Structures are given as structure tokens and as C-alpha cells.
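This entry is passed on directly below:
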Amino acid sequence: TMLNKIADFYDDEVDAAVGALTSLLEPMLMIFLGVIIGGLVIAMYLPIFKLAGVVGG
């Protein structure tokens, strides 16, 4: 029927839109997580380096 054809058309359109959004979102999410993890690593190691500098003179 006509409604089934329209439903199939919009189903394909939504699948294409979700695929495009996912392919855009994945790299952004990876960059965001990298920045967060890098910030945590720097926040952990910076006091150790400062302490080593103070102790070393």
C-alpha cells in the first residue's frame, strides 16, 4: 500500500541520518575522552614533578 511505501522511505531516511550523525559524533567523542583522560594524567603527574623540583633544589 501507499502507507507502507512511505514508511519504508522514511525508515531509510532515518537510517541514513542516524548513520551520518554517528559517523560525525564518534571522532568528536574520542577527542573529548582523550582530552579528559589527558587532563587527568596531567593533574596526577604535575604535583609529583613539582615535588621533585622542590626536593631536588
Q: What stands out?
A: The chain has a mean pLDDT of 94. Residues 2-56 form the longest helix (55 residues).
